[in-house]
C-alpha cells in the first residue's frame, strides 16, 4: 500500500521537476574575465604564432620553421645589446638591493627629523613619468660634464630600481616580529650581528622578490636608456626599436617571445617567493 501511495505521489509531481536538468549558466563575470584575458593575451599569441612563420614578413603563413630562433642567436648585434642590458640590469639591481634594503630598514626602525619628507621623496620615482626622469638625468649629467656611457645608464636605472626594492622590502618588514631582533640584542648580539643573523634572513625573500621586479623593469626600459646612453652603449630595447622602424621581422618576433617567457618566469619566481614569505 505504501508503494502505491509513493507511486501516486510521484505521479502528481510534474515530470520536469522529477528529473531536474543540469543547466550550465554562464554569468557576465565569466564573459567579462574571458574577454579581458583575450584582449590582454591575444597579441602575444599572434606574436608567438608568427615567430614560427617561414615567411620573412607577417602578411601570411608559409609554413612552420625554427630558423628565426637559430638566426637570432647568431646575430652579433642582438647578442651585444643583450650583454649590455644584462650588465645594466644586474649592476643596477645589485646596487639597489644594498641601498634599498638599508633604506627600508632605516625608515622602519629609526625616527629622525624630516622622516616623512624623506619617505615621500624616496618613492617619487614610482609615480614620476619616465620621460621626466630621463630628461632630468640627462640635464644633470650634462651640467656635470659627465660623458654618456653604459655607466650612466646604470646610474639612471638605480634611481627607479632603488624605489622598487625599498618598497617591497618595506612591505616585508611590516609583517616581521620586531621582538626577535630585540631578543637577539638582549642576548648580547651587536646591532650589526643581529641584523645579519636575525633580520636579514627574514628579509631575504622580500629582497629577492624586489630585485627580480627591478631587474625585469630595467631590462624592459627603453626611454631612460635612450636618453642616457653613449655611443656603443646600445641596450636590447634600443636595438629592437631601431629594427622595427622598417617593419617587424620574424627574428624580432622570436626575440620578443623569448623576452616574454623570461619575464614571465622571473615574475612567477618573484610571486612564489612573496607567497612563501607571507606563509612563513
From TrEMBL:
Query: Which keywords does this Swiss-Prot/TrEMBL entry list?
Result: Cell membrane, Membrane, Transferase, Transmembrane, Transmembrane helix, Transport
Q: Which GO terms describe its cellular component?
A: plasma membrane
Instruction: List, in alphabetical order, the GO biological process terms annotated in this UniProt record.
Output: transmembrane transport
Q: Which Gene3D superfamilies match?
A: MetI-like
Is Membrane among this UniProt entry's keywords?
yes
Which superkingdom heads the taxonomic lineage of this protein's source?
Bacteria
Q: Name one Pfam family in it.
A: BPD_transp_1
Query: Has the keyword Zinc been applied to this entry?
Result: no
Which residue ranges does UniProt annotate as crossing the membrane?
26-52, 86-105, 117-146, 152-173, 194-216, 252-270
Q: How does it sit in the membrane?
A: Multi-pass membrane protein
| InterPro entries with a match to the protein in the record | Bact_Polyamine_Transport (IPR051789), MetI-like (IPR000515), MetI-like_sf (IPR035906)
Q: Which Gene Ontology terms cover its molecular function?
A: ornithine carbamoyltransferase activity
Q: What is its EC number?
A: 2.1.3.3
Main EC class of this protein?
A: transferase
Annotated protein name in UniProt: Ornithine carbamoyltransferase
Q: Which species is the source of this protein?
A: Limnospira maxima CS-328
